[in-house]
């Protein structure tokens, strides 16, 4: 264990957080983790990390605190209050929030942390569960250049494309745009799949040739098997994409940007949740196209 590496507290060990924290351990970092489910803390300990019974205990000795939780309310719950990060972490520590939340929540968090002498980066990610496991995530960062430079070695243990996008909240804005592009892309792929199948085409062959041309995308590469096998085990849940479509449509309204196609796809994501598919992978947008096309799903 390299003693010169910063000590890390990791809060949130879900589908993304667990493999990411384990990648830091593999890179030689001393990682203390806390999450709501004890089994996930046990998994971190089995991988060589330490467990903590509370946020306060996890962050007390940390140089860097990384948070990876579902949405703005959870970030606020772990950051603020007497048992939260800001009251218990040492002055001078660096807080890297890798959750996908509203840009305004990130701006507010950075301002509150500054009063405590804590530096903050918003650093949401793209690449899904596979990207987290393989440490090839795209990481979009908002904050100060000096803090980004300090965080970079740690972020390089988690991802491949790591870019400072602007001041606090900018990472979240770029992540919102990412989620807009991904949702619209999945919806277009899903519509193509139903069209191809109803036309009697060999779907696997069709998707292979489409993915080799201008219609090809990371989305199609990653989700092709989900479409072919109707395997919607969650890499990224519809519930979370629903939250993200709310973020992007709200933020776009605030700045005066029209998202006509994004708004339609946001409604399709919402309808999937209403039909009980919120726990499925976002590639399950295929199910809504099938229902609209008269198929029994």
Features:
six-stranded parallel β-sheet; three-stranded mixed β-sheet; 14 helices
Give the rounded overall mean pLDDT: 97
Major beta sheet summary: 6 strands, parallel
Report strand order across the widest sheet. Answer: 3-2-1-4-5-6
Specify the oligomeric state: single chain
Order of helices and strands: EHEHEHEHHEHEEHEHEHHHHHH
Proportion of strand residues: 5-15%
Report how far apart the termini are. 51 Å
Give the overall shape, derived from the CA principal axes.
Answer: globular
Q: Helical segment tally?
A: 14
Structural class: alpha/beta
Radius of gyration from the alpha-carbon trace, in angstroms: 20 Å
How many E-type strands? 9
How much helicity do the residues have? 40-55%
TL;DR of this structure?
This protein is an alpha/beta fold.
Task: Describe the fold and architecture.
The structure is a single chain. With 297 residues, the protein is an alpha/beta fold. It has 14 helices and 9 strands. Strands 3-2-1-4-5-6 form a 6-stranded parallel beta sheet, sandwiched between helices. Helix 12 runs antiparallel to helix 13.
Indicate the topology.
Blueprint: E1 8-11, H1 17-26, E2 31-34, H2 38-46, E3 50-51, H3 55-59, E4 64-67, H4 72-79, H5 85-88, E5 94-97, H6 103-115, E6 119-122, E7 125-126, H7 128-134, E8 137-142, H8 145-156, E9 159-166, H9 170-198, H10 203-211, H11 218-229, H12 238-255, H13 260-274, H14 285-292
Parallel strand pairs: 1-2, 1-4, 2-3, 4-5, 5-6, 8-9
Antiparallel strand pairs: 7-8
Helix pairs in contact: 9-11, 9-12, 9-13, 9-14, 10-11, 12-13
């Amino acid at each position: 264990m390299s003693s010169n590496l910063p000590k890390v507290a990791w809060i949130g060990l879900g589908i993304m957080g667990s493999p990411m924290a384990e990648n830091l351990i593999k890179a030689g970092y001393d990682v203390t983790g806390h999450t709501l489910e004890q089994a996930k803390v046990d998994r971190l300990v089995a991988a060589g990390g330490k467990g903590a019974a509370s946020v306060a205990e996890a962050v007390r000795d940390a140089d860097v605190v990384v948070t990876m939780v579902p949405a703005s309310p959870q970030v606020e719950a772990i950051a603020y209050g007497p048992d939260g990060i800001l009251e218990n972490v040492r002055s001078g520590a660096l807080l890297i929030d890798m959750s996908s939340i509203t840009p305004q929540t990130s701006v507010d968090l950075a301002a509150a942390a500054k009063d405590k002498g804590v530096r903050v980066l918003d650093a949401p990610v793209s690449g899904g569960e596979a990207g987290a496991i393989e440490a090839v995530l795209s990481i979009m960062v908002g904050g100060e250049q000096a803090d980004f430079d300090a965080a970079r070695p740690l972020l390089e243990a988690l991802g491949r494309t790591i870019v400072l996008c602007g001041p606090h909240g900018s990472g979240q804005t770029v992540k919102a745009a990412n989620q807009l592009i991904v949702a619209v892309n999945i919806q277009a792929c899903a519509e193509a799949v139903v069209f191809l199948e109803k036309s009697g085409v060999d779907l696997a062959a069709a998707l292979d040739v489409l993915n080799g041309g201008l219609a090809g995308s990371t989305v199609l590469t990653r989700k092709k098997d989900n479409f072919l096998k109707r395997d919607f085990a969650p890499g990224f849940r519809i519930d979370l994409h629903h939250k993200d479509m709310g973020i992007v449509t709200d933020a776009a309204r605030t700045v005066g940007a029209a998202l006509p196609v994004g708004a339609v796809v946001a409604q399709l994501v919402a309808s999937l949740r209403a039909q009980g598919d919120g726990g499925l992978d976002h590639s399950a947008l295929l199910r809504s196209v099938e229902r609209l096309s008269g198929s029994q799903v």
